[in-house]
Amino acid sequence: MQMWMQTQLLSRTPLEILYICAMELFYVYVLVSEKDNSWYIGYTSDLAKRLIEHNSGKTITTNRKKPWIVLYYEVSSNKEDAIAREKYLKSGMGRRYLKNRLKNQLDF
C-alpha cells in the first residue's frame, strides 16, 4: 500500500477504510525522458505497471526515448475526470500550468 494511502487511513473509520480500499484510482501522469528531457502525458489505473510498460518498449509512442521517470502525477477516483485532466495537461494552458507548478524541479 502506498505511503499516502497509509497516512489517509490513520484517521478514518472502518467503513471509510473499506470504501477507500475498494475505490479504483486513476493516475494522470507526466513522464520525462532521461534521453532528451521530453515529456509524455497519460493516464492509467496502475502507475507502476504503466511505467514498466513505457520503459520496456511495449508502448510504441515512448519506445525511442526511454528510459522514462515519473516527473509528476495526480490521483482521481473518477475515470472521466482523469481523462479530462490528461486532455487539459496536454493543452498549451496545461503545459504552462505544469511548468509553473514544477518550476523548482525543472531546469529552465
Mind explaining what this structure looks like?
It is built from five helices and three strands; from the N terminus they run H-H-E-E-H-E-H-H. The termini are far apart. Helices cover 44% and strands 21% of the residues. The protein has a single domain, classed as GIY-YIG endonuclease (3-Layer(aba) Sandwich), CATH 3.40.1440.10. Helix 4 (79-90) crosses helix 5 (92-101). The protein has helices at residues 3-9, 14-22, 47-56, 79-90, 92-101; strands spanning 26-33, 39-44, 68-76. The protein is an alpha+beta fold and 108 residues long. The longest helix is centred in the C-terminal third of the chain and has 12 residues, at 79-90. The mean pLDDT is 86. Strands 2-1-3 form a three-stranded antiparallel beta sheet.
Distinctive features:
three-stranded antiparallel beta sheet, single chain, alpha+beta, GIY-YIG endonuclease, 44% helix, 108 residues
Give a brief outline of the structure:
This protein has helices at 3-9, 14-22, 47-56, 79-90, 92-101, and strands at 26-33, 39-44, 68-76.
Question: SSE layout and pairings?
Answer:
Blueprint lengths: L2 H7 L4 H9 L3 E8 L5 E6 L2 H10 L11 E9 L2 H12 L1 H10 L7
Antiparallel strand pairs: 1-2, 1-3
Helix pairs in contact: 4-5
